[in-house]
Write a sequence for this structure.
């Protein structure tokens, strides 16, 4: 877990390299990284959680919907793998999505023991609305001057490139799967 040390209004990363370092002693790279962590773990995560809640979904349910593509069945085990879940945890998540009419379980053609998930028409429509709301620029970005938006995008792309993680290959906000707290009616 990341420890954060606060000095007044300035947040300092809790990494061993800078923990306990006064703001003036921090390098520009450390200050930049601290801001990026704050944006990602604070602002972006809050936006994600609020957006997901507005669709009456849990975080894991939203992640499962994002893993599925319309018209392309995906084995439940593969969904669990993408969400970094134990396959037994994904069952409850799928139960809730299926109860809402968002996904269907189907036997895989090659092995009837394998269950694949398919987005329903309603699930595909909700997934599209979720994506539009999730990936639409929030006010903090939309109100930046266009040249600042371009420059920020270029800088972030350089960071992604340096990490060897093209954005299209990143798993959609997938921390390890939490157990979906909603009760299941049998």
């Amino acid at each position: 877990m990341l420890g954060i040390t606060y000095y007044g209004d300035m947040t300092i990363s809790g990494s061993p390299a800078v923990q306990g370092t006064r703001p003036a002693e921090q390098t520009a790279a450390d200050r930049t990284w601290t801001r990026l962590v704050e944006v990602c773990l604070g602002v972006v995560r809050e936006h994600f959680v609020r957006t997901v809640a507005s669709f009456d979904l849990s975080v894991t349910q939203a992640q499962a919907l994002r893993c599925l593509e319309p018209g392309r069945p995906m084995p439940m085990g593969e969904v669990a793998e993408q969400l970094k879940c134990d396959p037994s945890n994904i069952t409850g998540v799928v139960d809730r999505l299926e109860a809402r009419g968002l996904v269907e379980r189907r036997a895989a053609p090659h092995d009837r023991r394998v269950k694949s998930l398919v987005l329903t028409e309603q699930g595909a429509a909700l997934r599209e609305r979720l994506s539009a709301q999730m990936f639409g620029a929030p006010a903090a970005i939309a109100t930046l001057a266009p040249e600042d938006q371009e420059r920020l995008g270029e800088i972030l792309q350089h960071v992604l490139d340096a990490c060897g993680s093209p954005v299209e290959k990143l798993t959609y906000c997938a921390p390890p799967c939490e157990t979906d707290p909603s009760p299941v009616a049998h």
User: Anything to note?
Assistant: The radius of gyration is 20 Å.
